[in-house]
């Protein structure tokens, strides 16, 4: 009976998640967001590596036009491979979209529920807040736009698990803290920066009130374990950035427009009563101000802090023009909405817990909110799915996106095609992020990438070989220079017709595309990324540490304890 009560909420969340994706299952329609092509290329590359057993950690041999560019190694590599596994399991892009949406709903609801239960909230409050969070825009941002911020948001509640003991008891649980932070870094780097900000503020607060040597010893252990769990990330950044100048993501000089009080207002409109909850949280905090714990005060002001950062009240545009450090990497202030919403709902749950309502009263109050939140998500999903039946070419061809067919029906059919490469061939996007720019860039980098990689005038055949090699074949009518649709980095090794050539003697374009001298007739060039011994060591450290730590966690949870915490 206890086991049934313990797992019933997760079963409920799974059922709700199923009904949230049911409209898509029934209509067999897909939702086209702004970022789907970029991420589908990432996941396709990882999926094909898994399928063919040809693992190339750095270069893209399958996705991104098999251009040999680096993306996944610098953008959540662990999550990219997990998503690649989902792609293989699904078999088509339509089924992947349904499956990933289901996982997103269930994961976000479950992590928030788990956080509240571990921090002493009752089951009813925890479940209701889990449902509210899983139908918030933190989750729907992936469903409607395929933006990866949502995957960071789904894991965000887990990163707060160690925070209560960190502040209240001045205790650090090294394994727990290291694992949740490392999981976030392996998923979404910007979200992990937000988590680090939270713990840095908490650390500053705790230190000012006095801590023991044990606290610093445990914190040192957590940092050491965290470094091992994320060694591949730091190794990748050092390997790539030390020898190359990379093209950063675009700088948004109109940042203020993308705040929650302007174009990013959806973040506080899903569900519609979210602002009511946050306002009620402020009222309850003000009323019970003198009776709250230090921890409750910290949570409230952290939520206010990130809420302020989410708005246009700050001079974001001026800061961008003045090139204030770190501001340019933010791009959209609404990204701060994730910790704002998570901390706000988390703090609110603690306030209403103190009201000590009966289960019946709580159910009567909460049920309408759950139904409304669920209904709004369903209604908006149906609206988005209905757009599929009337999609025009303009819907597929967004900025810097190209449709390589005149028939949009062909693109729609490719979502159900078991050949996953079909969609990525028909719809291609010029995305220059992380390309090497070792020479002065003149012209639009998006257009240069389209010209040199997407629409190369010479016909090339690319074949992925074992041991992390890819060979490019082409037929030449004359001898002379030719620019290949391949990106080369400092560590990229090139072999032209059996002869090794040095990159520093080879002409490269402003985005790293290489030019070689072709011979009349058949030509072939093999591309390979030479990892340093330090990079290989960092990969092995991560690969060995994760299974060892997860095994330790499982053993710890299976071992019976006298004073078990709330599950």
Automatic annotation (TrEMBL):
It comes from the Bacteria. Keywords: Membrane, Transmembrane, Transmembrane helix. The keyword NAD does not apply. The chain crosses the membrane at residues 6-26, 70-90, 96-116, 125-144, 189-211, 223-242, 267-286, 298-316, 328-349, 533-555. This is Membrane protein 6-pyruvoyl-tetrahydropterin synthase-related domain-containing protein.
